[in-house]
Amino acid sequence: MEILADVGGRPGIDCRGFCSYCYFKGVKLKELKPFGCKRCLPFQKGCDYCSRAIAEAYPGFKPMATVAMEVAGAAFGRRPDKVTISGGGDLSCYPELLPLARMVGQGGVPIHLGYTSGKGFTKGDEADDLIEAGVKEVSFTVFSTDPALRREQMNDRHPEAALANLRRFAEECDVYAASVLIPGVNDGPELDRTCRDLEEMGVKNLILMRFANSREQGLILGNEPIIPGVVPHTVEEFRDIVTETNDRYSFRVAGTPLWDPVTKSPFALAHHKDLIRRLPQVRKGATLITSSVAQPLLSAIFDELCDLVNVVAVKKEIGCLITIQDLLDLDLSGLKETVILPGRTMAFDPEIKRVLSRDGVKRLVRRGPDRLTVDGEMSISMTPEEVLEVEVEAFAELIDEINALGV
Hints:
The chain is of the alpha/beta class. The chain has helices at residues 48-51, 64-75, 97-104, 126-133, 147-154, 159-172, 188-201, 235-248, 273-276, 295-305, 324-328, 349-355, 376-379, 384-405; strands at residues 2-6, 82-86, 111-116, 135-141, 174-181, 205-210, 252-256, 286-290, 309-313, 338-341, 364-367. Strand 6, helix 8 (235-248) and strand 7 form a beta-alpha-beta unit.
């Protein structure tokens, strides 16, 4: 049993200032309208998730007593196998992080620190007490091991202290480092230098994150561009960087939104035709709407299965961030009478149906599984077999849905 200890916190406020590349920089919360999502009631557009949580509009850090009560309630008196401390701000800025770690780690319960950049560490030795309290895993946004770059791009006032703590964590814990890659800033020779430092520290894994700067790349909160004038790496360029970095260093490297050279995810099934043929038979037809990144891989899988299913891409690169605007921009001429969208599409079901039937064809529109694959943030701690197991189960569920609702 794993438990989440959510400490809350607000991006840009409870992290000592926005990083230059932050997804939430420039968001005007008062102007955001509900997107609609699968959690919404059928008669009401907007719920807590698509109105507030999607923008991480927390009121601030929670008091430790509140977090403790939530953890105790989730445990139901049982000893958890692991506790993950996470939130919307930077964990290193949570004023009661050490007391909370000591409390949830009682009895030897291992602790995972969710994403922190270390910007709240000021002395350089804070990791020692956290390790003693039971921290075994740390997800650490490093960006660069150059203190000057961290100070400039991350608004880190004490970069040397953050990096000293990163080193200490790497000596005693499984550290999952992360870097958002900005072209011309921390890629190329700078990425190589950072990787050499991380290798010397003993970091376990590195997750490379492709910088997003436009709506098509995943910015749905009305705050694009985050850095005017910056053109992110293309999908192909980013994939090559991930592959080359993984080949060059001793630690494992994966990318998000793609790709993982070890597990071949996302959509690892596309590389295993023998497993594709063992999926349930597709007996009916449907159209799958997906992202531009997923479309060729998803098409390759269904091309092996049948000629009854076509896969259509919107101009959004991440499927769970598809909005009603993406569907309004879609050419409906290739859509069959049954349409299945990603389960986490950020749109209101009645609006989806209306938009996808605006050409006069009355279509049956449904959401598919929440996920068909895993991205680098998940796959980096998984084996190839574990990734394939997730995909086989998810595709079997999707095929069952097509067979039940298709034409």
